[in-house]
Amino acid sequence: MKKLLLICLALCLVFLMVAVASAADKDKAETVNGYVTDSKCGAKGAKDAHADCAASCVKGGASPVFVTGGKVYKIDDASKVADHVGHKVTITGELKGDTVEVKEVKM
User: Fold this and answer.
1) pLDDT values of the chain reduced to their tens digit, one per residue, 107 residues
2) Tally of structural domains, the chain
3) What range defines the domain where residue 93 resides?
4) Is residue 54 domain-resident?
């Protein structure tokens, strides 16, 4: 009976450790530099000279996107970058596939 109790306790500890480790992985935020531009121009709009065009395109219905390292990412919540369209920024968030989950944006 004691062996069974010890085995159950050990399994509970293992499951608890796995749960804590996976919760810690969810909070991994990266900080990356790049441009907030428009989905119409994408990576071609990742420059200071494109700022007015990017703002105009987003007002016209294009989605804001984040470009870093030549790769274009969708933005999970466009309202978080609305004041930064056309600007070079530092975004803290999580890159998931082709989308960035924005936690913080700094100029």
Assistant:
1) 788 766 766 666 666 666 555 555 556 789 999 999 999 999 999 999 999 999 999 999 999 999 999 999 999 999 999 999 999 999 999 988 999 999 999 98
2) 1
3) 30-106
4) yes
